[in-house]
Each structure stands twice: as structure tokens, then as C-alpha cells.
Design a protein that fits this description.
This protein is mostly helical and about 70 residues long. The chain contains two helices and no strands.
């Protein structure tokens, strides 16, 4: 088994999202870190389908990142 890198990192979540993550962590009797790590592992293939900002043509369109999330 590979060793795990356990560096600390601060992440900032909208208040409602953090509350939902905390509620789910409590429901599963798991840490916030465990919940976020599992969510990333489940979602990463879909997230990697999104174009990077460098892939988007600069056509003057508004940046949609962060809206309604």
C-alpha cells in the first residue's frame, strides 16, 4: 500500500454546503476530510471532462465559474 501524504490544506466552502457536508459526516460517523475525499474520488472523472480556462476561447463571454453552485 502506498504511503499517504497528510499535508494540511485549507478549503473554503459556502456555508450551506459546509453544513450539508457536516451533516453527512455526522450521519456516517466519518470525518469531514473522509467525506470530501470520497466525494472527489466519485466525481473526479466527471470534473476532468470540464474544459480548463486555458481551453476556452476568449470570445468575451462571461465567466460562469461559481454560479449556482
Amino acid at each position: 500500500m502506498a504511503s499517504s501524504d497528510k499535508r494540511k490544506q485549507s478549503l473554503y466552502f459556502p456555508e450551506q454546503m459546509l453544513k450539508e457536508i457536516q451533516d453527512e459526516a455526522a450521519r456516517q460517523d466519518r470525518s469531514l476530510s473522509w467525506i470530501v475525499q470520497k466525494a472527489w474520488k466519485i466525481a473526479r472523472k466527471d470534473i476532468m471532462k470540464y474544459p480548463s480556462v486555458n481551453d476556452l476561447a476568449d470570445d468575451g463571454a462571461d465567466d460562469e465559474r461559481g454560479r449556482n453552485e
